[in-house]
């Protein structure tokens, strides 16, 4: 080590003078923090878009993935026709088309595990930015895909099966389903706090949530009104939003109470996701338990 470097470390300038006190770092303003967060989300969304482009081409997405989902909706709607009930057919067709958005958003659980397996999660934890924002924005393509396929399914299945749909209210219906998808995305982020520490649990988490939504949220069967299942249905995403969307599709007015309920569920799961995922990441760093498995 040179004499100049030694004097710098000791707090003295060459020649014997004392080095000036370091200037204290200024805390960033709230506006600067918002700009940094927005930049993180923008880059995360761009990365998620490129990930999705690597999985699908336009042809495979349109004639493979989307056609498969439409056939899935037609299968469940066929069950209603099989029992000879037009009302059951319409109920199943609309519910299974609307649920595609929320179910698609569950893909973020596997995306977070992919960050760990590929070795990028370690670098995210070492960065000065918010790891939560990065992980949350890296899965936005799942929400976009779910909303788009849900819209296509509604527009294709309704005229194909003669399911009544108030077309003038379609933009409002899609806005309500967008809120339900965001709500389910927040629930999925809660589950990432488990999958990021135990990657093998991701399939069990997504499968269990899918079954719960299909059975309790009013997708294929009516929402339970009482008991433990009724309480669980009210705190699950999609329950309130799907109810409002069904009312609009039938030509009714927007149920603001149901929309407010869905917004409250989204806010609750979003806050819980931030708390649980942040705590899980801090525990991983503190214990050094992160491994590429």
UniProtKB/TrEMBL annotation:
Q: Transmembrane region positions?
A: 62-83, 167-191, 203-223, 256-277
Whether Membrane counts among this entry's keywords is yes
Q: Which domain of life is it from?
A: Bacteria
InterPro entries in the record, alphabetically? Answer: Nod_factor_ABC_transporter
Q: Which organism is it from?
A: Streptomyces cellostaticus
The alphabetical list of record keywords is: Membrane, Transmembrane, Transmembrane helix
Instruction: Tell me the protein's name.
Output: ABC-2 type transporter domain-containing protein
Transmembrane as UniProt keyword: yes
């Amino acid at each position: 080590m040179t004499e100049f470097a030694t004097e710098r470390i000791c707090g003295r300038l060459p020649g014997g003078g004392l080095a000036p006190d370091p200037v204290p770092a200024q805390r960033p303003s709230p506006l600067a923090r918002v700009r940094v967060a927005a930049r993180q989300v923008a880059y995360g969304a761009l990365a998620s878009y490129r990930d999705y482009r690597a999985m699908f081409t336009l042809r495979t997405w349109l004639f493979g993935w989307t056609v498969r989902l439409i056939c899935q909706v037609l299968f469940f709607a066929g069950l209603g026709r099989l029992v000879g009930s037009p009302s059951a057919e319409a109920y199943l067709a609309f519910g299974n088309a609307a649920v595609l958005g929320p179910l698609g958003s569950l893909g973020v659980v596997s995306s977070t595990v992919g960050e760990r397996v590929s070795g990028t999660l370690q670098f995210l934890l070492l960065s000065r930015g918010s790891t939560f924002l990065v992980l949350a924005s890296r899965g936005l393509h799942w929400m976009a895909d779910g909303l788009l396929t849900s819209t296509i399914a509604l527009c294709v299945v309704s005229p194909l099966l003669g399911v009544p749909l108030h077309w003038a209210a379609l933009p409002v219906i899609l806005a309500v389903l967008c809120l339900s998808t965001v709500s389910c995305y927040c629930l999925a982020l809660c589950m990432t706090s488990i999958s990021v520490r135990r990657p093998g649990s991701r399939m069990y988490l997504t499968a269990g949530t899918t079954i719960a939504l299909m059975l309790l949220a009013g997708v294929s069967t009516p929402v339970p009104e009482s008991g433990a299942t009724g309480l669980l249905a009210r705190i699950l995403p999609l329950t309130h939003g799907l109810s409002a969307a069904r009312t609009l599709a039938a030509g009714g007015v927007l149920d603001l109470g149901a929309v407010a309920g869905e917004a409250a569920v989204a806010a609750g799961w979003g806050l819980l996701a931030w708390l649980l995922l942040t705590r899980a990441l801090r525990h991983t760093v503190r214990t050094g338990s992160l491994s590429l498995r």
